[in-house]
Amino acid sequence: MKKLLVIKIGGNIIDDDNKLSSFLAEFATVAEKKILVHGGGKLATKLAGKMGIEQQMVDGRRITDAETLKIVTMVYAGYINKNIVASLQKNGCNAIGITGADGNAIQAHKRLKGQIDYGFAGDIDAVNTSLIKGLLEQGNDVVVAPITHDKNGQLLNTNADTIAQEIATAMSGLYDVSLVYGFEKAGVLMDAERDETVIPQIDPANYAELKKENVIFAGMIPKLDNAFAAIDKGVKKVIIGKAEQLGALIEGKSGTTIVRRET
Amino acid sequence: MKKLLVIKIGGNIIDDDNKLSSFLAEFATVAEKKILVHGGGKLATKLAGKMGIEQQMVDGRRITDAETLKIVTMVYAGYINKNIVASLQKNGCNAIGITGADGNAIQAHKRLKGQIDYGFAGDIDAVNTSLIKGLLEQGNDVVVAPITHDKNGQLLNTNADTIAQEIATAMSGLYDVSLVYGFEKAGVLMDAERDETVIPQIDPANYAELKKENVIFAGMIPKLDNAFAAIDKGVKKVIIGKAEQLGALIEGKSGTTIVRRET
Known about the structure:
Two copies of one chain form a homodimer.
Chain A (H helix, E strand, L loop, with lengths): L2 E7 L1 H4 L2 H13 L3 E6 L4 H8 L6 E2 L2 E2 L3 H25 L4 E4 L7 E5 L11 E6 L1 H9 L3 E4 L2 E3 L5 E3 L2 H12 L4 E7 L18 E2 L1 H9 L8 H12 L4 E5 L4 H5 L5 E4 L4
Parallel strand pairs in A: 1-2, 1-11, 2-8, 5-8, 11-13, 12-14
Antiparallel strand pairs in A: 3-4, 6-7, 9-10, 13-14
Helix pairs in contact in A: 3-4, 6-8
Protein backbone atom coordinates (compact mmCIF):
# COMPACT_ATOMS: atom_id res chain seq x y z
CA MET A 1 0.00 0.00 0.00
CA LYS A 2 1.06 3.60 -0.59
CA LYS A 3 2.20 5.59 2.41
CA LEU A 4 0.02 8.33 3.88
CA LEU A 5 0.97 10.73 6.65
CA VAL A 6 -1.71 12.31 8.82
CA ILE A 7 -0.12 15.19 10.70
CA LYS A 8 -1.80 17.25 13.42
CA ILE A 9 -0.53 20.64 14.54
CA GLY A 10 -1.88 22.71 17.40
CA GLY A 11 -1.77 26.18 18.87
CA ASN A 12 1.96 26.19 19.69
CA ILE A 13 2.65 26.21 15.92
CA ILE A 14 -0.44 28.01 14.62
CA ASP A 15 -0.10 30.97 16.97
CA ASP A 16 3.53 31.61 16.04
CA ASP A 17 3.91 33.01 12.49
CA ASN A 18 7.60 32.10 12.24
CA LYS A 19 7.15 28.55 13.51
CA LEU A 20 4.12 28.03 11.28
CA SER A 21 5.88 29.29 8.21
CA SER A 22 8.98 27.14 8.76
CA PHE A 23 6.81 24.10 9.62
CA LEU A 24 4.87 24.54 6.35
CA ALA A 25 8.08 24.89 4.35
CA GLU A 26 9.27 21.57 5.80
CA PHE A 27 5.85 19.94 5.35
CA ALA A 28 5.98 20.87 1.65
CA THR A 29 9.25 18.94 1.21
CA VAL A 30 7.79 15.64 2.48
CA ALA A 31 7.42 13.37 -0.54
CA GLU A 32 4.60 11.11 0.74
CA LYS A 33 0.92 11.85 0.34
CA LYS A 34 -0.22 13.75 3.40
CA ILE A 35 -3.07 15.26 5.33
CA LEU A 36 -2.57 18.19 7.69
CA VAL A 37 -5.12 18.65 10.47
CA HIS A 38 -4.86 21.98 12.24
CA GLY A 39 -6.33 23.12 15.52
CA GLY A 40 -7.56 26.59 16.22
CA GLY A 41 -5.03 28.37 18.38
CA LYS A 42 -5.76 31.56 20.23
CA LEU A 43 -7.04 33.70 17.36
CA ALA A 44 -10.69 32.69 17.87
CA THR A 45 -10.50 33.70 21.52
CA LYS A 46 -8.90 37.03 20.57
CA LEU A 47 -11.54 37.73 17.94
CA ALA A 48 -14.34 36.84 20.36
CA GLY A 49 -12.79 39.28 22.81
CA LYS A 50 -12.77 42.07 20.21
CA MET A 51 -16.42 41.35 19.47
CA GLY A 52 -17.33 41.22 23.15
CA ILE A 53 -18.37 37.56 23.09
CA GLU A 54 -17.41 35.80 26.29
CA GLN A 55 -15.66 32.45 25.89
CA GLN A 56 -16.27 29.60 28.30
CA MET A 57 -13.72 26.81 28.56
CA VAL A 58 -14.17 23.54 30.49
CA ASP A 59 -11.14 21.22 30.81
CA GLY A 60 -9.44 23.03 27.94
CA ARG A 61 -12.44 22.55 25.67
CA ARG A 62 -14.38 25.50 24.36
CA ILE A 63 -18.13 25.68 24.98
CA THR A 64 -19.45 26.45 21.51
CA ASP A 65 -22.56 28.62 21.64
CA ALA A 66 -24.08 29.94 18.39
CA GLU A 67 -21.95 33.12 18.30
CA THR A 68 -18.79 31.16 19.10
CA LEU A 69 -19.58 28.70 16.32
CA LYS A 70 -19.69 31.62 13.88
CA ILE A 71 -16.31 32.78 15.11
CA VAL A 72 -14.59 29.39 14.98
CA THR A 73 -16.03 28.77 11.51
CA MET A 74 -14.61 32.08 10.33
CA VAL A 75 -11.24 31.67 12.02
CA TYR A 76 -10.57 27.94 11.56
CA ALA A 77 -12.18 27.28 8.15
CA GLY A 78 -11.53 30.77 6.78
CA TYR A 79 -8.50 32.57 8.12
CA ILE A 80 -6.25 29.76 9.37
CA ASN A 81 -7.12 27.12 6.77
CA LYS A 82 -6.79 29.43 3.76
CA ASN A 83 -3.57 31.05 4.95
CA ILE A 84 -2.05 27.60 5.49
CA VAL A 85 -3.17 26.55 2.00
CA ALA A 86 -1.79 29.72 0.38
CA SER A 87 1.51 29.28 2.21
CA LEU A 88 1.80 25.61 1.13
CA GLN A 89 1.01 26.60 -2.46
CA LYS A 90 3.85 29.13 -2.25
CA ASN A 91 6.12 26.28 -1.16
CA GLY A 92 5.15 24.18 -4.17
CA CYS A 93 2.82 21.88 -2.22
CA ASN A 94 -0.53 21.49 -3.96
CA ALA A 95 -2.74 21.85 -0.89
CA ILE A 96 -6.52 21.92 -0.82
CA GLY A 97 -8.31 22.98 2.36
CA ILE A 98 -11.52 21.40 3.59
CA THR A 99 -13.81 21.17 6.59
CA GLY A 100 -15.84 18.08 7.42
CA ALA A 101 -18.78 19.60 5.54
CA ASP A 102 -16.91 19.76 2.22
CA GLY A 103 -17.70 16.70 0.14
CA ASN A 104 -19.27 15.34 3.36
CA ALA A 105 -15.70 14.57 4.44
CA ILE A 106 -16.49 14.13 8.14
CA GLN A 107 -20.01 13.57 9.35
CA ALA A 108 -20.66 14.15 13.04
CA HIS A 109 -23.48 14.70 15.46
CA LYS A 110 -23.92 17.40 18.06
CA ARG A 111 -22.50 16.11 21.30
CA LEU A 112 -25.24 14.83 23.59
CA LYS A 113 -25.67 16.89 26.73
CA GLY A 114 -24.02 15.19 29.66
CA GLN A 115 -23.07 16.97 32.84
CA ILE A 116 -21.63 19.68 30.61
CA ASP A 117 -23.42 21.12 27.58
CA TYR A 118 -20.63 21.74 25.06
CA GLY A 119 -23.05 23.43 22.65
CA PHE A 120 -22.24 23.05 18.95
CA ALA A 121 -19.46 20.51 19.50
CA GLY A 122 -19.27 17.58 17.10
CA ASP A 123 -18.62 13.91 17.84
CA ILE A 124 -17.55 12.10 14.69
CA ASP A 125 -19.69 9.40 13.05
CA ALA A 126 -17.97 8.77 9.71
CA VAL A 127 -15.05 9.78 7.53
CA ASN A 128 -15.64 9.86 3.75
CA THR A 129 -12.57 7.91 2.70
CA SER A 130 -13.44 7.90 -1.01
CA LEU A 131 -13.65 11.72 -1.09
CA ILE A 132 -10.30 12.06 0.68
CA LYS A 133 -8.66 9.36 -1.44
CA GLY A 134 -9.97 11.11 -4.56
CA LEU A 135 -8.41 14.41 -3.50
CA LEU A 136 -5.09 12.74 -2.65
CA GLU A 137 -4.97 10.69 -5.86
CA GLN A 138 -5.74 13.83 -7.85
CA GLY A 139 -2.40 15.13 -6.55
CA ASN A 140 -3.54 17.28 -3.66
CA ASP A 141 -2.40 17.30 -0.07
CA VAL A 142 -5.41 17.89 2.14
CA VAL A 143 -5.57 20.52 4.90
CA VAL A 144 -8.41 19.90 7.35
CA ALA A 145 -9.96 22.57 9.59
CA PRO A 146 -11.55 21.32 12.83
CA ILE A 147 -15.13 21.96 11.77
CA THR A 148 -17.53 19.12 10.88
CA HIS A 149 -21.24 18.97 10.03
CA ASP A 150 -24.25 16.81 10.84
CA LYS A 151 -25.50 16.43 7.20
CA ASN A 152 -28.53 18.36 8.34
CA GLY A 153 -27.11 21.84 7.73
CA GLN A 154 -25.43 22.28 11.09
CA LEU A 155 -21.69 23.01 11.32
CA LEU A 156 -19.99 21.67 14.45
CA ASN A 157 -16.79 22.60 16.26
CA THR A 158 -14.70 19.44 16.57
CA ASN A 159 -11.52 18.52 18.40
CA ALA A 160 -8.56 18.43 15.98
CA ASP A 161 -6.78 15.54 17.77
CA THR A 162 -9.91 13.45 17.35
CA ILE A 163 -10.27 14.43 13.69
CA ALA A 164 -6.66 13.40 13.02
CA GLN A 165 -7.18 10.07 14.75
CA GLU A 166 -10.48 9.33 12.98
CA ILE A 167 -9.05 10.22 9.56
CA ALA A 168 -5.93 8.14 10.21
CA THR A 169 -7.89 5.05 11.27
CA ALA A 170 -10.45 5.39 8.46
CA MET A 171 -7.76 5.81 5.79
CA SER A 172 -5.71 2.87 7.10
CA GLY A 173 -7.80 0.50 4.97
CA LEU A 174 -6.52 2.26 1.86
CA TYR A 175 -3.00 3.40 2.78
CA ASP A 176 -0.13 2.53 5.03
CA VAL A 177 -0.85 5.33 7.55
CA SER A 178 1.46 7.05 10.01
CA LEU A 179 -0.19 9.49 12.40
CA VAL A 180 2.01 12.35 13.66
CA TYR A 181 0.91 14.43 16.63
CA GLY A 182 2.74 17.73 16.80
CA PHE A 183 3.16 18.67 20.41
CA GLU A 184 4.94 21.25 22.58
CA LYS A 185 7.24 18.59 24.06
CA ALA A 186 9.88 16.44 22.34
CA GLY A 187 7.73 13.32 22.78
CA VAL A 188 6.68 11.11 25.67
CA LEU A 189 9.06 12.10 28.45
CA MET A 190 10.29 10.29 31.56
CA ASP A 191 10.63 13.72 33.16
CA ALA A 192 8.03 16.20 31.86
CA GLU A 193 10.50 19.09 32.28
CA ARG A 194 13.40 17.58 30.35
CA ASP A 195 13.16 16.98 26.61
CA GLU A 196 16.25 14.77 26.71
CA THR A 197 14.29 12.12 28.66
CA VAL A 198 12.15 11.30 25.61
CA ILE A 199 11.24 7.62 25.23
CA PRO A 200 12.03 6.79 21.58
CA GLN A 201 9.68 3.85 21.16
CA ILE A 202 6.72 2.43 23.03
CA ASP A 203 4.96 -0.84 22.31
CA PRO A 204 2.18 -2.44 24.34
CA ALA A 205 4.66 -4.48 26.41
CA ASN A 206 6.83 -1.61 27.61
CA TYR A 207 3.77 0.68 27.87
CA ALA A 208 2.29 -1.64 30.52
CA GLU A 209 5.60 -1.62 32.34
CA LEU A 210 6.06 2.17 32.11
CA LYS A 211 2.56 2.73 33.46
CA LYS A 212 3.10 0.26 36.29
CA GLU A 213 6.29 2.03 37.33
CA ASN A 214 4.56 5.46 37.09
CA VAL A 215 7.31 6.60 34.74
CA ILE A 216 5.02 8.40 32.32
CA PHE A 217 3.62 11.84 33.09
CA ALA A 218 -0.09 11.34 33.87
CA GLY A 219 -1.22 13.93 31.29
CA MET A 220 0.24 11.75 28.54
CA ILE A 221 -1.79 8.64 29.40
CA PRO A 222 -4.96 9.63 27.45
CA LYS A 223 -2.84 10.57 24.41
CA LEU A 224 -1.08 7.23 24.55
CA ASP A 225 -4.30 5.30 25.06
CA ASN A 226 -5.65 7.05 21.96
CA ALA A 227 -2.47 6.22 20.05
CA PHE A 228 -2.79 2.53 20.89
CA ALA A 229 -6.49 2.62 19.98
CA ALA A 230 -5.52 4.03 16.55
CA ILE A 231 -2.95 1.29 16.11
CA ASP A 232 -5.49 -1.37 17.08
CA LYS A 233 -7.70 -0.02 14.30
CA GLY A 234 -5.03 -0.30 11.62
CA VAL A 235 -2.78 2.78 11.83
CA LYS A 236 0.78 1.56 11.35
CA LYS A 237 2.47 3.90 13.78
CA VAL A 238 1.79 6.99 15.84
CA ILE A 239 4.55 9.52 16.34
CA ILE A 240 4.41 12.16 19.07
CA GLY A 241 6.89 15.02 19.14
CA LYS A 242 7.75 18.55 18.10
CA ALA A 243 6.18 19.55 14.79
CA GLU A 244 9.22 21.83 14.31
CA GLN A 245 11.20 18.63 13.71
CA LEU A 246 8.82 17.07 11.22
CA GLY A 247 11.46 15.43 9.04
CA ALA A 248 13.24 13.87 12.03
CA LEU A 249 9.89 12.70 13.47
CA ILE A 250 8.96 10.94 10.26
CA GLU A 251 12.39 9.30 10.06
CA GLY A 252 12.13 8.13 13.68
CA LYS A 253 15.11 10.28 14.71
CA SER A 254 13.07 12.43 17.05
CA GLY A 255 9.94 12.06 19.18
CA THR A 256 8.25 8.94 20.47
CA THR A 257 7.06 6.29 18.04
CA ILE A 258 4.20 4.09 19.20
CA VAL A 259 4.04 0.77 17.42
CA ARG A 260 2.32 -2.58 17.54
CA ARG A 261 3.84 -5.32 19.60
CA GLU A 262 6.58 -7.11 17.70
CA THR A 263 5.40 -10.66 17.12
CA MET B 1 -19.72 17.61 -24.29
CA LYS B 2 -21.33 17.36 -20.86
CA LYS B 3 -23.25 20.36 -19.62
CA LEU B 4 -21.87 22.55 -16.85
CA LEU B 5 -23.64 25.41 -15.13
CA VAL B 6 -21.66 28.23 -13.53
CA ILE B 7 -24.02 30.19 -11.30
CA LYS B 8 -23.19 33.40 -9.49
CA ILE B 9 -25.20 34.75 -6.57
CA GLY B 10 -24.70 38.07 -4.83
CA GLY B 11 -25.67 39.96 -1.72
CA ASN B 12 -29.41 40.09 -2.44
CA ILE B 13 -29.52 36.31 -1.88
CA ILE B 14 -26.65 35.85 0.56
CA ASP B 15 -27.88 38.48 3.01
CA ASP B 16 -31.38 37.02 3.23
CA ASP B 17 -31.45 33.69 5.12
CA ASN B 18 -34.82 32.65 3.69
CA LYS B 19 -33.93 33.48 0.10
CA LEU B 20 -30.55 31.77 0.44
CA SER B 21 -32.03 28.65 1.91
CA SER B 22 -34.73 28.31 -0.77
CA PHE B 23 -32.19 29.11 -3.51
CA LEU B 24 -29.88 26.35 -2.23
CA ALA B 25 -32.77 23.86 -2.05
CA GLU B 26 -33.54 24.60 -5.71
CA PHE B 27 -29.86 24.55 -6.69
CA ALA B 28 -29.60 21.06 -5.18
CA THR B 29 -32.34 19.76 -7.50
CA VAL B 30 -30.52 20.81 -10.70
CA ALA B 31 -29.29 17.62 -12.34
CA GLU B 32 -26.35 19.06 -14.33
CA LYS B 33 -22.84 19.44 -12.97
CA LYS B 34 -22.55 22.89 -11.47
CA ILE B 35 -20.34 25.49 -9.86
CA LEU B 36 -21.73 28.11 -7.48
CA VAL B 37 -19.76 31.33 -7.11
CA HIS B 38 -20.88 33.47 -4.22
CA GLY B 39 -20.18 37.09 -3.41
CA GLY B 40 -19.73 38.47 0.03
CA GLY B 41 -22.83 40.39 1.00
CA LYS B 42 -22.99 42.78 3.91
CA LEU B 43 -21.70 40.50 6.67
CA ALA B 44 -18.06 41.51 6.17
CA THR B 45 -18.98 45.18 6.52
CA LYS B 46 -21.00 44.42 9.66
CA LEU B 47 -18.15 42.43 11.18
CA ALA B 48 -15.65 45.17 10.34
CA GLY B 49 -17.99 47.61 12.08
CA LYS B 50 -18.10 45.46 15.23
CA MET B 51 -14.32 45.31 15.21
CA GLY B 52 -13.97 49.05 14.60
CA ILE B 53 -12.28 48.65 11.23
CA GLU B 54 -13.39 51.34 8.82
CA GLN B 55 -14.41 50.17 5.34
CA GLN B 56 -13.68 52.24 2.27
CA MET B 57 -15.69 51.64 -0.88
CA VAL B 58 -14.96 53.16 -4.31
CA ASP B 59 -17.51 52.61 -7.10
CA GLY B 60 -19.05 49.76 -5.13
CA ARG B 61 -15.70 48.03 -4.73
CA ARG B 62 -14.15 47.49 -1.35
CA ILE B 63 -10.66 48.80 -0.69
CA THR B 64 -8.97 45.76 0.85
CA ASP B 65 -6.37 46.77 3.41
CA ALA B 66 -4.62 44.07 5.49
CA GLU B 67 -7.25 44.03 8.25
CA THR B 68 -10.09 43.97 5.73
CA LEU B 69 -8.45 41.05 3.92
CA LYS B 70 -8.50 39.10 7.21
CA ILE B 71 -12.18 39.85 7.60
CA VAL B 72 -13.23 38.93 4.06
CA THR B 73 -11.16 35.74 4.26
CA MET B 74 -12.96 34.80 7.47
CA VAL B 75 -16.42 35.77 6.26
CA TYR B 76 -16.33 34.68 2.60
CA ALA B 77 -14.12 31.56 2.78
CA GLY B 78 -15.18 30.60 6.31
CA TYR B 79 -18.65 31.60 7.38
CA ILE B 80 -20.51 32.02 4.07
CA ASN B 81 -18.79 29.29 2.07
CA LYS B 82 -19.06 26.61 4.77
CA ASN B 83 -22.66 27.41 5.65
CA ILE B 84 -23.61 27.18 1.98
CA VAL B 85 -21.78 23.84 1.71
CA ALA B 86 -23.45 22.46 4.86
CA SER B 87 -26.86 23.58 3.61
CA LEU B 88 -26.30 21.97 0.19
CA GLN B 89 -25.18 18.75 1.87
CA LYS B 90 -28.42 18.80 3.86
CA ASN B 91 -30.28 19.06 0.54
CA GLY B 92 -28.47 16.01 -0.84
CA CYS B 93 -26.11 18.00 -3.04
CA ASN B 94 -22.51 16.86 -2.63
CA ALA B 95 -20.90 20.30 -2.44
CA ILE B 96 -17.25 21.06 -1.81
CA GLY B 97 -16.19 24.62 -1.03
CA ILE B 98 -12.99 26.18 -2.27
CA THR B 99 -11.18 29.47 -2.65
CA GLY B 100 -8.78 30.22 -5.49
CA ALA B 101 -5.91 29.13 -3.23
CA ASP B 102 -7.25 25.58 -2.81
CA GLY B 103 -5.60 23.28 -5.31
CA ASN B 104 -4.33 26.49 -6.93
CA ALA B 105 -7.82 26.80 -8.42
CA ILE B 106 -7.53 30.48 -9.36
CA GLN B 107 -4.21 32.22 -9.55
CA ALA B 108 -4.26 36.01 -9.51
CA HIS B 109 -1.98 38.96 -8.95
CA LYS B 110 -2.44 41.94 -6.69
CA ARG B 111 -4.10 44.67 -8.73
CA LEU B 112 -1.56 47.21 -9.92
CA LYS B 113 -1.98 50.64 -8.40
CA GLY B 114 -3.75 52.96 -10.77
CA GLN B 115 -5.48 56.14 -9.73
CA ILE B 116 -7.03 54.09 -6.95
CA ASP B 117 -5.10 51.67 -4.75
CA TYR B 118 -7.51 48.79 -4.17
CA GLY B 119 -5.10 47.11 -1.73
CA PHE B 120 -5.24 43.30 -1.62
CA ALA B 121 -7.56 42.98 -4.60
CA GLY B 122 -6.85 40.20 -7.08
CA ASP B 123 -6.93 40.28 -10.87
CA ILE B 124 -7.15 36.77 -12.26
CA ASP B 125 -4.33 35.18 -14.28
CA ALA B 126 -5.36 31.53 -14.60
CA VAL B 127 -8.05 29.02 -13.69
CA ASN B 128 -6.91 25.47 -12.91
CA THR B 129 -9.38 23.62 -15.10
CA SER B 130 -7.97 20.16 -14.35
CA LEU B 131 -8.44 20.65 -10.59
CA ILE B 132 -12.02 21.83 -11.07
CA LYS B 133 -12.78 19.09 -13.59
CA GLY B 134 -11.37 16.53 -11.17
CA LEU B 135 -13.64 17.74 -8.37
CA LEU B 136 -16.69 17.73 -10.65
CA GLU B 137 -15.94 14.29 -12.11
CA GLN B 138 -15.46 12.94 -8.61
CA GLY B 139 -19.15 13.78 -8.09
CA ASN B 140 -18.85 17.10 -6.30
CA ASP B 141 -20.54 20.39 -7.07
CA VAL B 142 -18.06 23.17 -6.39
CA VAL B 143 -18.81 26.26 -4.27
CA VAL B 144 -16.31 29.06 -4.86
CA ALA B 145 -15.64 31.89 -2.39
CA PRO B 146 -14.37 35.16 -3.92
CA ILE B 147 -10.84 34.87 -2.56
CA THR B 148 -7.86 34.04 -4.79
CA HIS B 149 -4.10 33.87 -4.23
CA ASP B 150 -0.92 34.89 -6.00
CA LYS B 151 0.92 31.52 -5.58
CA ASN B 152 3.35 33.46 -3.41
CA GLY B 153 1.45 33.10 -0.14
CA GLN B 154 -0.80 36.13 -0.53
CA LEU B 155 -4.59 35.78 -0.44
CA LEU B 156 -6.48 38.32 -2.54
CA ASN B 157 -10.05 39.63 -2.42
CA THR B 158 -11.54 39.11 -5.88
CA ASN B 159 -14.75 40.19 -7.58
CA ALA B 160 -17.22 37.29 -7.71
CA ASP B 161 -18.70 38.30 -11.10
CA THR B 162 -15.22 38.17 -12.58
CA ILE B 163 -14.48 34.80 -10.96
CA ALA B 164 -17.70 33.35 -12.40
CA GLN B 165 -16.85 34.66 -15.85
CA GLU B 166 -13.24 33.44 -15.77
CA ILE B 167 -14.26 29.98 -14.55
CA ALA B 168 -17.01 29.76 -17.17
CA THR B 169 -14.71 30.71 -20.04
CA ALA B 170 -11.85 28.49 -18.85
CA MET B 171 -14.14 25.46 -18.41
CA SER B 172 -15.78 25.96 -21.81
CA GLY B 173 -12.99 23.95 -23.43
CA LEU B 174 -14.09 20.92 -21.39
CA TYR B 175 -17.86 21.35 -20.99
CA ASP B 176 -20.83 22.90 -22.67
CA VAL B 177 -21.02 25.86 -20.25
CA SER B 178 -23.95 28.08 -19.35
CA LEU B 179 -23.18 31.06 -17.12
CA VAL B 180 -26.02 32.28 -14.89
CA TYR B 181 -25.79 35.67 -13.20
CA GLY B 182 -28.21 35.96 -10.30
CA PHE B 183 -29.30 39.54 -10.06
CA GLU B 184 -31.84 41.70 -8.20
CA LYS B 185 -33.82 42.37 -11.40
CA ALA B 186 -35.71 39.92 -13.61
CA GLY B 187 -33.14 40.30 -16.38
CA VAL B 188 -32.15 42.99 -18.87
CA LEU B 189 -35.06 45.41 -18.73
CA MET B 190 -36.38 47.97 -21.21
CA ASP B 191 -37.58 49.96 -18.19
CA ALA B 192 -35.31 49.49 -15.16
CA GLU B 193 -38.27 49.87 -12.82
CA ARG B 194 -40.53 47.27 -14.40
CA ASP B 195 -39.64 43.57 -14.31
CA GLU B 196 -42.26 42.83 -16.98
CA THR B 197 -40.17 44.70 -19.57
CA VAL B 198 -37.48 41.99 -19.52
CA ILE B 199 -35.88 41.28 -22.90
CA PRO B 200 -35.94 37.45 -23.22
CA GLN B 201 -33.04 37.05 -25.63
CA ILE B 202 -30.20 39.22 -26.86
CA ASP B 203 -27.78 38.36 -29.63
CA PRO B 204 -25.08 40.61 -31.12
CA ALA B 205 -27.43 41.90 -33.83
CA ASN B 206 -30.26 43.08 -31.60
CA TYR B 207 -27.75 44.19 -28.91
CA ALA B 208 -26.29 46.73 -31.37
CA GLU B 209 -29.78 47.93 -32.18
CA LEU B 210 -30.88 48.13 -28.53
CA LYS B 211 -27.79 50.14 -27.67
CA LYS B 212 -28.27 52.47 -30.63
CA GLU B 213 -31.86 53.16 -29.59
CA ASN B 214 -30.80 53.70 -25.94
CA VAL B 215 -33.31 51.09 -24.87
CA ILE B 216 -31.04 49.39 -22.34
CA PHE B 217 -30.42 50.86 -18.90
CA ALA B 218 -26.84 52.22 -18.95
CA GLY B 219 -25.83 50.27 -15.82
CA MET B 220 -26.42 47.02 -17.71
CA ILE B 221 -24.02 47.79 -20.57
CA PRO B 222 -20.84 46.59 -18.79
CA LYS B 223 -22.62 43.38 -17.69
CA LEU B 224 -23.74 42.75 -21.25
CA ASP B 225 -20.34 43.54 -22.71
CA ASN B 226 -18.87 41.01 -20.27
CA ALA B 227 -21.50 38.47 -21.25
CA PHE B 228 -20.65 38.82 -24.93
CA ALA B 229 -16.95 38.60 -24.11
CA ALA B 230 -17.62 35.29 -22.31
CA ILE B 231 -19.56 34.02 -25.31
CA ASP B 232 -16.77 35.04 -27.66
CA LYS B 233 -14.44 32.92 -25.52
CA GLY B 234 -16.56 29.78 -25.76
CA VAL B 235 -19.35 30.03 -23.16
CA LYS B 236 -22.51 28.75 -24.83
CA LYS B 237 -24.93 31.16 -23.22
CA VAL B 238 -25.16 33.70 -20.45
CA ILE B 239 -28.38 34.05 -18.49
CA ILE B 240 -29.13 37.11 -16.37
CA GLY B 241 -32.07 37.12 -13.97
CA LYS B 242 -33.40 36.45 -10.51
CA ALA B 243 -31.56 33.65 -8.72
CA GLU B 244 -34.84 32.95 -6.91
CA GLN B 245 -36.11 31.58 -10.24
CA LEU B 246 -33.13 29.36 -10.96
CA GLY B 247 -35.06 26.53 -12.60
CA ALA B 248 -36.95 28.90 -14.90
CA LEU B 249 -33.71 30.76 -15.75
CA ILE B 250 -32.00 27.54 -16.78
CA GLU B 251 -35.00 26.50 -18.89
CA GLY B 252 -35.09 29.91 -20.58
CA LYS B 253 -38.53 30.70 -19.13
CA SER B 254 -37.27 33.64 -17.11
CA GLY B 255 -34.50 36.21 -17.34
CA THR B 256 -32.49 37.34 -20.34
CA THR B 257 -30.48 34.81 -22.33
CA ILE B 258 -27.49 36.14 -24.21
CA VAL B 259 -26.45 33.98 -27.15
CA ARG B 260 -24.18 33.95 -30.15
CA ARG B 261 -25.48 35.29 -33.40
CA GLU B 262 -27.50 32.66 -35.23
CA THR B 263 -25.65 31.81 -38.44
